[in-house]
Design a protein that fits this description.
- It is a single chain.
- The chain is mainly α.
- It has one domain.
- Helices cover 80% and strands 0% of the residues.
- It is built from 14 helices and no strands.
- Helix 2 packs antiparallel against helix 6.
- The longest helix has 41 residues.
- The radius of gyration is 31 Å and the shape is globular.
- 24% of the residues are buried.
Length: 338
């Protein structure tokens, strides 16, 4: 005999009502929260956003501090320059100024090409790379890289971790410069050993040792130093070598435009020697040494001295003008944002 248990009308729905209410209440507490609260995933995302915003603010403050220091450096450099003498020496020909503008813009545009490949850097990034160049020249070497890193961190929608790329690009720039120095030194070795460059053999050998040592260290620890892919590293190295060749060619062209009676091929030789002398780390008074080399190879002592003095004064003036413009704009924008 089968026993049947009877329940009142609607008993099933009534018995389920407490469990359903409890489930609805749990879902309500899970999906609704007061201000400042939320699920662990939501709180984690909000914390990440806050950290990024805090990092961007700190990066902006650091960039403003560098801009202020740049203005101070500009003021100090202006006091040491003799503008009348420099203006009297500057050529008036348009081709010279086009060559000079190209020479000044080659480094930032080369790096913009690199970071365009790595990050999709917009054209506005050229301004940040120009600031980096001026900071390195007026303030302290490699301080510009720090400022550019702060600039990139302040724009996290562009790149989240810029340190590795900037580090690799900077190391490869030094390495390609060292390799180019060794190649030029091999080509100029007979002239260097003859003593006609005005450099002692001991200084040359010690400089060569420093260049070789730093290059070997970079190559030996390359797997730990570099974070980019091998293909990217090869492309960046090729761009750095191309930049060196273009700069040497533009130096020769500018000198030829000032002193056209000297053949362009001879200026190319002198531009290569200038690059070599500037890259040797232990050679003091590099401008004096190069002036002696130029006078020895070309003669024209008065004209060569005039040319070297003009170029030595024109570059700082350009750095000062560019640095003052960018530093003023940076300080104005940071004050407006605050």
């Amino acid at each position: 005999m089968i026993e049947r248990t009877t329940q009142p009308f609607g008993g099933d729905e009534a018995s389920d009502r407490p469990a359903r209410a409890e489930s609805d209440m749990a879902q309500m507490y899970q999906h609704s929260f007061a201000a400042g609260e939320g699920s662990p995933e939501t709180r984690l995302d909000m914390g990440t956003v806050e950290q990024r915003q805090r990092g961007s603010r700190l990066a902006g403050l650091f960039s403003a501090a560098i801009s202020l220091a740049m203005l101070v450096a500009v003021a100090m450099e202006i006091r040491q320059l003799h503008f009348r003498e420099i203006l009297a020496m500057i050529p008036r020909s348009a081709p010279f100024w086009l060559a000079f503008a190209a020479y000044y813009l080659v480094p930032p545009f080369t790096e913009w090409t690199i970071y365009r490949r790595l990050w999709g850097l917009p054209l506005s990034g050229v301004a940040a790379l120009l600031r980096k160049q001026v900071s390195n020249e007026l303030l302290l070497g490699y301080l510009g890289e720090v400022q550019f890193y702060a600039w990139a961190r302040a724009r996290l929608n562009m790149v989240a971790a810029p340190f590795g790329a900037i580090k690799d690009v900077t190391i490869l720039s030094a390495l390609t410069g060292n390799i180019a120095t060794l190649v030029m030194l091999v080509g100029a070795w007979p002239l260097v050993m003859s003593g006609q460059l005005g450099m002692e053999s001991r200084t040359v050998f010690m400089s060569l040792g420093v260049v070789l040592l730093t290059s070997c260290i970079i190559l030996f620890f390359r797997q730990r130093l570099f974070s980019l892919h091998k293909r990217d590293l090869l492309i960046i190295t090729g761009l750095h070598f191309g930049r060196i060749i273009i700069i040497v060619g533009l130096w020769a062209l500018m000198w030829h435009l000032v002193l056209p009676e000297v053949e362009l091929a001879m200026w190319l030789v002198l531009a290569t020697l200038r690059m070599l002398i500037s890259r040797l780390p232990l050679v003091p008074n590099k401008d004096v040494v190069f002036a002696g080399v130029a006078v020895f190879l070309l003669g024209h002592e008065a004209q060569i001295s005039h040319l070297i003095a003009m170029m030595a004064g024109l570059l700082p003036v350009t750095h000062i003008v560019v640095g003052a413009i960018f530093a003023s704009v940076d300080l104005f924008q940071s004050r407006k944002e605050s």
